[in-house]
Amino acid sequence: MGLSIFVITVFLGGAFAVPALVGPFYQTNDYYTYEEIGDYLDGLAWSYSNRVVLKEIGVSYENRTLRTITISNGDGRPGKNVIFIDAGFHAREWLAHTTALNIINELVVNYDKNKDLLDDYEWIILPLVNPDGYTYSRSDIERIDWRKNRKPSGNGCIGTDLNRNFEVGWGAGDASDDPCNFQLYRGEAPFTEPESQTIQRVLLELTANNRGKLYLSIHSYGAEILYPWSYAKETIKNYKEHLEIAEKAIQAISKTSRPSKYVARPGNAMYVAGGSSMDYAYKVGFPLSFVWELPGIRGNEEFKFYPPKYLIRELVRETWVGVRAMAKNVIKYYPTS
Ligand code: 0X9
Ligand code: ZN
Question: At residue 174, what are phi and psi to the nearest 5 degrees?
Answer without folding.
Answer: -80, 70
